[in-house]
Every structure is written in structure tokens, then in C-alpha cells.
Write a structure and sequence with these properties.
alpha/beta, about 290 residues, 12 helices, Rossmann fold, four-stranded antiparallel β-sheet
Length: about 290
């Protein structure tokens, strides 16, 4: 009886949460006092932050500070030892692996390596999930693949193999693949690491375009400060003729991108680009220098 009562209470809680998270301006992701340790090593300590729809969270920190671990908790690849994690109204820290599949359907993940299938063409890579895991007609999948490749400027490469692409082109194809099934949240794990500055700029522009033109919410894990500040301080606009321009963001728009600085699993700073530049904390100043 107790188990049944608990299940009923959880169901009611989830229903209320779904209604709350559906409200305008509600967060799409919440970390509430999250902690995780591997044996004696504490990776995250009482970490709390929220991500609003269409906003950006940029997670900074030294190697081993817990940046990528946070993404693994969001996607359910790791379970937190303490705290609560909500993703699009679902409390993921309580979900089974089977239940997490539905949550992951609304998450797109872009790795540093791009992780493309070497034996598939660009078209097949981008449409893989739709071809294999949906009942969408092939013609509709093809149209969606062409649409997202056009969005990232890679349509001319649709029939190429990944081996024929540059590093930056592979990252842009990875972004197209992540957005093909229209996720509401995109997670970027060192998406520009290893790229030259000009190529990294093209990837940053795609991140900005997805956020501002498609309404995608973003979490960016990086140690590339130049790229982090660029994404935080620029925005995308669409001209009447359909052309897209990347421009300097207004002060109000800049505040929609927040930095989270982790140090040994603790949040030591959270705020916008201007606040981060003005901080007098010696550790953060050392990190930024």
C-alpha cells in the first residue's frame, strides 16, 4: 500500500511540475542542490542553477571541476547522489533508463569530436535519428535534413563523407544532426576546442543563430573564453530579405546569457558577461587572465 501511495504522490507531483514548467518564463532545466562523488572524490557539491527558455548557460572551470559531469547528469548518463534535476518538467533523477529515452528526445548534444558516423554520408548522418527512430516519411526526413544543413551552411556538402570535411565542417554537421529532430535544449561540450579562431567563429555563429532564431535553450561547457564571451555578447537577427546577421547584443540580451564558474565542484560565480569581467575574486581573475 505504501508503495502505491508513493507512486500516486509522485504522479501528482509530476503533474503539478509539468504545469509549472509550462508557464511562460518558466525554466526548462533546474539543478537543485545537486551533488555527486566517485568514492572519495567529490565532483559536484550542492550545485544549483536554472536555465530559462531561449537563454544560455555557459559553464566554465578548470579540468576536473565538474563541467562535463553536469551534462552527463542532465542526459541521465550519470545519476546524482543528492539533489533534484528537472528537464522540461520531468524530474530526471528519478527516471529509469527507459523513461529517460523520452527526455533525451528533447536534448541535442554536440561533442568536441563531432562523433559522426564515418561510413555514412552527411545526409545520412544528419537524418540518422529521423530515418531510424521515427515514422516520418522519407521525403519529409529529406526535406528536414536539407533544411538544417542549409541553416548551418552545409547543404552543398550533403552527399560527402565525413572524411572529406574539415574539422569545422564536421562540427557544423554535428550541430545540424543535433537540431534535426527539433530539440528544445542543446548541450555543447567543448564544441570549439581544437578549432582555429576563424573556424570557431563559424561554429559560435551557429550556436547564436539556433538560440535567437529557433528559440533553443543552450548549455555550453567550455574553457575557450574568447568563444564564451562572443556567444554571450552577440545576437542573431533576420533581415526582411531573409539574410541573417550576427550583431552586438543589447545589454538586455546579454543578460540572457549567464556564466557559471565551477571550482572543485562548487559554484564560485554566476552572472552575466559584464559581472564576470568586473569580479574581483582572485581565482576568477586568474582564470580569466
Amino acid at each position: 500500500m505504501a508503495d502505491g501511495t508513493t507512486a500516486e504522490m509522485n504522479a501528482v507531483s509530476d503533474m503539478i511540475a509539468a504545469q509549472v514548467f509550462a508557464e511562460p518564463g518558466a525554466p526548462v532545466l533546474v539543478f537543485d542542490h545537486v551533488g555527486l562523488a566517485f568514492d572519495e572524490k567529490v565532483v559536484l557539491r550542492d550545485v544549483s542553477f536554472t536555465l530559462l527558455k531561449g537563454h544560455t548557460k555557459i559553464i566554465l572551470g578548470a579540468s576536473g571541476s565538474g563541467k562535463s559531469t553536469s551534462l552527463k547528469i542532465i542526459t541521465g548518463l550519470l545519476k546524482a547522489d543528492a539533489g533534484v534535476v528537472w528537464v522540461n518538467g520531468r524530474r530526471v533523477d528519478q527516471l529509469t533508463e527507459r523513461e529517460m529515452m523520452a527526455v533525451r528526445a528533447d536534448l541535442g548534444l554536440i561533442f568536441q569530436e563531432g562523433a559522426l558516423f564515418d561510413s555514412l554520408t552527411v545526409r545520412e548522418n544528419v537524418g540518422y535519428k529521423l530515418y531510424e527512430e521515427s515514422d516520418m516519411p522519407i521525403a519529409d526526413v529529406d526535406r528536414r535534413v536539407e533544411e538544417v544543413l542549409g541553416f548551418v551552411g552545409m547543404l552543398d556538402h550533403i552527399d560527402k563523407m565525413p572524411s572529406a570535411l574539415s574539422g569545422g565542417q564536421r562540427r557544423r554537421v554535428a550541430i545540424a544532426r543535433a537540431m534535426a529532430f527539433k530539440p528544445r535544449i542543446l548541450l555543447y561540450d567543448e564544441a570549439t576546442t581544437g578549432l582555429d579562431p576563424i573556424t570557431a567563429l563559424t561554429v559560435n555563429d551557429e550556436i547564436i543563430k539556433l538560440r535567437d532564431l529557433e528559440g533553443v535553450s543552450s548549455i555550453i561547457v567550455t574553457h575557450q573564453l574568447r568563444d564564451a564571451f562572443y556567444v554571450a555578447t552577440h545576437s542573431a537577427t533576420r533581415e526582411p530579405d531573409g539574410a541573417v546577421r550576427i550583431v552586438r547584443a543589447t545589454s538586455e540580451k546579454e543578460r540572457e546569457a549567464e556564466f557559471v564558474m565551477l571550482k572543485e565542484g562548487l559554484i564560485v560565480f554566476e552572472g552575466d558577461a559584464d559581472a564576470l569581467r568586473r569580479t574581483t575574486d582572485p581565482y576568477i581573475q586568474s582564470f580569466l587572465s
